[in-house]
């Protein structure tokens, strides 16, 4: 396995190194470690608070069995049926949605679906399409296929669920730091590419049940101060800092979108949500001292949220119309609106992020 001091980029699937990718993370050793430690402390603090809160305040419940089936409706979701995604997909299938999943490995994802079916869920339909969020090209291809498919003739909900923390500094083929691209930029592009179809769907539905765009953000966004000088790459690499920033970017984007929808009087709501602290594979990818590996994970399994509760938390607002009518565009934790990082409330900064993201994804304004 890896040695403690190695910082090389892991190159699992794509063997050939992409131009511009870097083996050594920016920043000198000392500053990197200092930064790493600092953001680890921030994260550990917020996640521990979260878990303590979880002991007293329960995740919002949604009673799937009592809900109306959504047999006509279509959800597009990023990431496969594992982690929180597993329970989200399960609930969507229970509600008889058609779910288009953007995944990297279809056979691995099929196993997840088989498990859901084994649990006795017979309703709903799944369609897999290839999506690698580390590549903008792949995002474009995915969007094209979604829009051309029979299932994608309407989109009632877009769930931007996939997310990573990358222990290693990795520059993608598009020359962006991988966490920023996977968690934020690729989803930004995907949202923009699918938006016309979402708008069509909302218009077709008329009033009543709105369309939704949902982002799984994270409570750690509180520590994700955006610095435009190191947005797409880092000056001094810290995987957690990149993660926090990417999660704040998502919230800001939700706000921008919701405003646009209101201006255009579209029946679409966007929101961002923190699912809770949940023991999933995400924690394994964080780095050796960040996850304090096993002990913290074990505590999390005991007092953190279950992924079922996480899925409820994510879907709660979308499936509870009263909530979004009042609170669209907001950031949620445990079913409640929470004030995010100050930067999310700065209109100039929001605009700057939007413009920069458009520029980076090369969409004509
Ligand atoms: N767990 C927590 O405590 C926690 C807390 C706050 C926020 N969140 C957020 O919740 C979301 C789900 O996290 P999780 O805990 O369920 O994590 P997870 O178990 O690690 O799952 C990550 C998901 O992201 C997908 N993914 C990763 N890289 C991808 C790429 N390059 N292209 C396409 N898909 C990719 C994975 O798909 P594959 O199956 O193809 O690998 C997988 O479905 C994330 O956005 C995370 O930031 C989690
Ligand atoms: C996809 O997942 C399966 C396990 O379900 C694995 O055997 C296979 O190697 C994976 N394919 C790729 C390209 O990673
Ligand atoms: C979600 O985040 C993506 C970027 O990650 C952004 O494009 C999209 O507008 C956001 N939507 C919501 C509802 O937060």
UniProtKB/TrEMBL annotation:
Transmembrane parts of this sequence: 37-57
Region Disordered, annotated ranges: 1-25
InterPro entries: NAD(P)-bd_dom_sf, SDR_fam
Keyword Thylakoid recorded: no
Gene3D superfamilies: NAD(P)-binding Rossmann-like Domain (3.40.50.720)
Alphabetical keyword list: Membrane, Oxidoreductase, Transmembrane, Transmembrane helix
Cited Pfam families: adh_short
Name of the protein described by the UniProt record: Short-chain dehydrogenase TIC 32, chloroplastic
Organism: Orchesella dallaii
């Amino acid at each position: 396995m890896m040695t403690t001091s190695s910082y090389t980029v892991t190159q699992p699937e794509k063997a050939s190194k992409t131009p511009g990718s870097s083996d050594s993370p920016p920043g000198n050793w000392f500053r990197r470690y200092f930064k790493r430690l600092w953001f680890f402390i921030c994260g550990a603090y917020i996640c521990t608070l979260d878990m303590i809160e979880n002991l007293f305040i329960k995740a919002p419940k949604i009673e799937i069995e009592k809900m109306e089936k959504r047999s006509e409706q279509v959800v597009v979701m990023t990431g496969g049926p594992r982690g929180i995604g597993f329970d989200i997909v399960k609930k969507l299938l229970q509600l008889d949605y058609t779910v288009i999943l953007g995944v990297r490995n279809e056979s691995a994802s099929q196993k997840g679906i088989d498990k859901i079916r084994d649990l006795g869920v017979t309703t709903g339909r799944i369609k897999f399409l290839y999506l690698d969020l580390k590549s903008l090209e792949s995002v474009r291809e995915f969007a094209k296929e979604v829009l051309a498919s029979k299932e994608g003739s309407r989109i009632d909900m877009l769930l931007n669920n996939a997310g990573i923390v990358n222990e290693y500094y990795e520059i993608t083929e598009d020359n962006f730091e991988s966490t920023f691209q996977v968690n934020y930029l690729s989803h930004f592009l995907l949202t923009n590419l699918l938006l016309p179809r979402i708008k069509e769907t909302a218009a077709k539905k008329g009033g009543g049940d709105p369309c939704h765009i949902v982002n799984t953000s994270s409570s750690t966004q509180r520590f994700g101060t955006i610095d435009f000088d190191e947005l797409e790459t880092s000056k001094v690499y810290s995987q957690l800092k990149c993660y926090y920033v990417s999660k704040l970017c998502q919230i800001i984007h939700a706000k921008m979108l919701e405003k646009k929808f209101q201006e255009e009087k579209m029946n679409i709501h966007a929101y961002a949500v923190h699912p809770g602290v949940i023991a999933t594979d995400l924690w394994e990818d964080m780095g050796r001292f960040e996850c304090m590996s096993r002990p913290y994970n074990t505590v999390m399994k005991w007092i953190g949220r279950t992924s079922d509760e996480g899925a409820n938390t994510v879907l709660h607002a979308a499936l509870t119309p009263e909530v979004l009518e009042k609170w669209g565009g907001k950031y949620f934790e445990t079913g409640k609106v929470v004030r995010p990082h100050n930067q999310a409330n700065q209109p100039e900064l929001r605009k700057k992020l939007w413009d920069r993201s458009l520029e980076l994804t090369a969409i004509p304004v």
